[in-house]
Amino acid sequence: MPRLAILDDYQGLAPARFEHLKARGVDIASFPETLNPRDPAQKAALIERLQPFDIVVTMRERTPFPADVIAALPNLKLLLTTGRKNASLDLDACRQRGITVAGTTGQGRGGLLHEADPDSTTQHTWALILGLARHIARDDAAVKAGGWQGSLAIGLPGKTLGLLGLGRLGTATARIAVLAFNMKVIAWSMNLTQDRADEAARQAGLPAGTFEVVSSKLELFRRADILSVHYVLSPRSRGLVGRAELDAMKPTALLVNTSRGPIIDEAALLEALHAGRIRGAALDVFDAEPLPADSPWRTTAWGRDGRSEVLLTPHMGYCEEENMERWYDEQAENLERWLDGQELRTRLV
After folding, report:
1. For a disulfide at 102, which of 11, 245, 290, 344, Cβ 3.0-4.6 Å?
2. Digit-coded pLDDT (tens) for 285-327
3. Which is catalytic among the residues 60, 175, 315, 326?
4. Count of CB atoms situated within 10 Å of the CB of 105
5. What are the backbone dihedrals phi and psi of residue 332, each rounded to the nearest 5 degrees, phi first?
6. Is there a contact between 297 and 272 (Cβ–Cβ < 8 Å)?
7. Is 202 known to be catalytic?
8. What is the pTM of this model?
9. Is 20 a catalytic residue?
């Protein structure tokens, strides 16, 4: 009887997608609470949890699978993830141990009606920008606590949006800034040129020159009224935003990160926000996820006693109903194909 472990299903969506496989003898267990193998105690608990299982279903970049964890799971034969890649899985270790790994098609665009529609992460980026600029969470809490107005919103038209990265998500964010809010857009990344930015603008239906490439990363941070991070996490980009970049920001500026937590030096960011050196930050991603209960992000009285405003969401950039349901359906289909001895879709190993 194959044993299936479903990991990191925070909303409890997956079991219904796999329920029909019980008729084929698949024993299913669900473990919604994430264990982080970077912590030795949690690594031991994760290994003990998963050792009996032949099949593991996981969500991209929630539970990492480094080589030492994979080596400690002798029964593991099939690892199903989401997306076309998952940087938190050691694929070489899986390959060496003969473990099949498969993902899902696309990058979460299953719910879009048209290719030009903003994807889930872009929508969430703008939800954070607007939520922070207009104090939505703080004012909601104030009204429910019996208060009323205590702050003024920040108008976006005419402001400068700075983009750290001008790939697909950065371009989609920039397009909305221009068309919906009449903002100026500047951008920088290690290999970005004005020609590439002009081509991105044309593909977004905007004139060449709409997106200005600045000469340096520090210039980007100096000029931006709102700085949004759209960079892929890699050894080169880890800590790409540090004290120098944060110190360069205007005291009235807002920082938004829907990309990956480690791109920003967390200690430097906490220091800047504690000191109130920028107006605020909106974060959907963090160094450790889920956030520990004692994390300063959870326990600090942000927006008080000179501290910056901070708006937090729990890595929701890709968590739309259509996306999540589609991914779990594809994983269940791949498991059926594996049980039938058929070739898997979106196979990674």
Report:
1. 344
2. 999 999 999 999 999 999 999 999 999 999 999 899 888 999 9
3. 315
4. 14
5. -65, -40
6. no
7. no
8. 0.92
9. no
